[in-house]
Amino acid sequence: TVGGVIGLKDPSQTRLWANFTAAQGLDYDLLDRTLNFGATTGSLEFAGRLIKVDVPSARLYGGSVKMTADINTGQPGVRQNMNVELNAVNFATLTRLYFDYKDSQGVVSGRYNFGFVPGQAEKMQGSGNLLVENGNVFAIPVLGPLSAVLGTILPGVGYQTARKATCDFRVANGEIRTENLDVIGQGFSMI
After folding, report:
1. Contact 177/170 with Cβ under 8 angstroms?
2. Rounded to the nearest 5 degrees, what angle is found at the Cα of 163, between the Cα atoms of 158 and 169?
3. Helix or strand or coil: residue 172?
4. How many Å apart are CA 127 and CA 109, to the nearest integer?
5. CB 30 within 8 A of CB 22
6. CA–CA distances in Å: residue 84 to residues 53, 81, 110, 139, 154
7. Which range in 26-35, 47-56, 150-159 is most confidently predicted, on average pLDDT?
8. What distance in Å separates the CA atoms of residue 83 and residue 114, rounded to the nearest whole number?
9. Angstrom distances, CA of residue 124 to CA of 80, 168, 172
10. How does 76-97 read in b/e, with b if 16+ C-beta sit within 10 Å?
């Protein structure tokens, strides 16, 4: 459903809205990967060269996602802003898609508020938090060396499924940083 005014001679005069429902789902390319969303509803609001996106409900890999975004068009190099919330999304599917990890398990929930310049992923900046439940977080290569250390201290512990792993994080200058990664497993906790 679409309504409003399009400024053909002067794009700054555009005031347009569009509500959509994609019952069969839709695909969205993010960071050179295609996310396959299930049933999705949302709205777009065009005001001049600014597009406001609101997706309050979308299915994604067994869970759900909400997203809002401010997208500037017609101005190369302008920072775009997004806010994404995940709820119980299949962690293994996401880590396989983006990082080619084959041994992750569980579900991931969290939020990520970030800005980026299209085509320049290294300039992404933002912050958020993650919760992984019933997942093999030590299967992720960056945490993999901890499996061997934990396995030496408590045999078998480094390769078991964690009941819960949480962290707050920041992204800037091509790095992801966290200062509070907490992993709770069967009979152990790692802070």
Report:
1. yes
2. 85
3. strand
4. 14
5. no
6. 11, 10, 8, 25, 37
7. 47-56
8. 6
9. 10, 17, 6
10. eeebbebebbbebbbbbbbbeb
Whether the Cβ atoms of residue 19 and residue 26 lie closer than 8 Å to each other: no
Fill in the DSSP letter of residue 148. H
The reported pTM is 0.79
pLDDT at site 141: 47
* pLDDT per position as a tens digit, 89-102: 998 898 889 888 77
Query: Which tokens sit at 168?
Result: 């707050």
Give Rg (Cα) of the chain: 20
Establish how many alpha carbons lie within 13 A of residue 140's alpha carbon, considering only the half-sphere containing its beta carbon.
Answer: 19
Q: Cβ(62)–Cβ(39) under 8 Å?
A: no
Q: Label residue 165 left, alpha or beta by phi (over 0 means left) and psi (-120 to 50 means alpha).
A: beta
Instruction: Give first-to-last CA distance, the chain, whole Å.
Output: 50
* Length of the chain counted residue by residue: 191
